[in-house]
Amino acid sequence: MIVTTAELYKVAYGKFAIGAYNINNAEQTMGLFRGCIDSQAPFIIQISKGARKYTDKRMLEAIIRSASEIFPDAIFAVHLDHGDEATCYDCIDSGFYSSVMIDASHDPFEENVAITKRVVERAHAKGISVEAELGMLGGVEEDIAVDEGNACLTNPDEAVEFIKRTGCDALAAAIGTSHGAYKFKGQQSLHFDVIEQIEAKLKAAGMPPTPIVMHGSSSVPQDEVLRINAAGGQLDPSARGVNEEEYLPAAKLGVTKVNIDTDGRLVWTRVHREFFRDKPQEFDFRPPGKVFQDEYAKFIAHKNEKLGSAGKLAEVRAALGK
Ligand code: G3H
Ligand code: 13P
Ligand code: ZN
Fold it and tell me: Is 230 helix (H, G, I), strand (E, B) or coil?
């Protein structure tokens, strides 16, 4: 059942984080739903602009509607990931999305405020919530590359002003993560201080607590990278992501939505490379596709455990009166 993102935030805020998983095709969607049912977790499906173009935006809608029928107990929201203004309006008007992300973080502050405000007005008129971004993550977002030197953490004072002036429902804050497989070399920790300061300053300003969204949350497991390379891949083995043990402490401070895409791509790559390495005579795509669905479901259930959303489906259902 599709619910609003706001409803999920309400139940999770300060207690656990909701996994926001990008999807592009049917196999990934089946694995996602199965993993969330196996772990009894609510979740957010994210659709990027690239995903909408990969087959067709209507194809993804149809896949999600079908998955919802196949898994009638699933409780989830549908979200546009890293939208521009035009794509946000398209999603708001479609009647299918629970929330949109307007990403104007690459624009100057005042422009980011103006664009976000326009999207918030259009979205709220239809009961849709809006995630906006302030600060700059490193890595690649859609077609924009940000090198580590230009990435900057969100300024907590600016965050409070931004939320106040835009009325956005959730804030994608730069707290030290970046998109993609090549996040960090060696050990790295989240900037918990930035999350704490944003929430404390909101409180001091008499504003309601605002869920923080953590982009670039994949952990880039080293064993996954090594297995891919052992099956013919050439990924940099020193690549590191977010420590999964930091998801829950971050959630307790206000990180309510955790975006994960890259780790799922690594699962796909490992499964398919190993399958065709071990069965070089094979050319039917369904056998590896089946393995992928199973492995993706396991991966999702594991992430939900680390996020604290596993086992929370009954609580969410009761809170929503569904
Ligand atoms: O942050 C970006 C997400 O991982 C989506 O990636 O734009 O390649 O679909 P994509
Ligand atoms: P990762 O690249 O770390 O999976 O981040 C995904 C993301 O932030 C999608 O918006
Ligand atoms: Zn992102």
Answer: helix
Dump the DSSP string for 242-298: --GGGHHHHHHHTEEEEEE-HHHHHHHHHHHHHHHHH-TT---SHHHHHHHHHHHHH
DSSP assigned state of 116:
H
CA separation for the pair 228, 235 (Å, rounded): 8
| CA–CA separation, 44 and 11 (whole Å) | 14
Burial class (CB in 10 A: 0-12, 13-18, 19+), 56: exposed
Q: 38 an active-site residue? A: no
Which is catalytic among the residues 81, 169, 261, 263?
81
How far is residue 166's CA from residue 225's CA, in Å, rounded to a whole number? 40
H-helix or E-strand spanning residue 200: helix 192-204
**pLDDT given at position 140:** 46
SS3 83: strand
* pLDDT at position 86: 98
Determine the atom of ligand 2 nearest the C-alpha atom of 264.
4
Q: What is the pTM of this model?
A: 0.95
User: Is the minimum distance from the CB of 218 to ligand 1 under 6 angstroms?
Assistant: no
The alpha carbon of 281 and the centre of ligand 2 are apart by a number of angstroms equal to: 35
- CA dist 183 and 268 (Å) reads 19
pLDDT in tens, 104-149: 999 999 999 999 999 999 999 999 999 999 998 765 454 455 555 4
User: What is the distance in A from the centroid of ligand 2 to the CA of 289?
Assistant: 23
Q: Are 227 and 270 in contact (CB under 8 A)?
A: yes
Q: Residue 285 corresponds to which tokens in the numbers above?
A: 């795509």
Of 314, 318, 304, 319, nearest in space to 16 by CA = 304
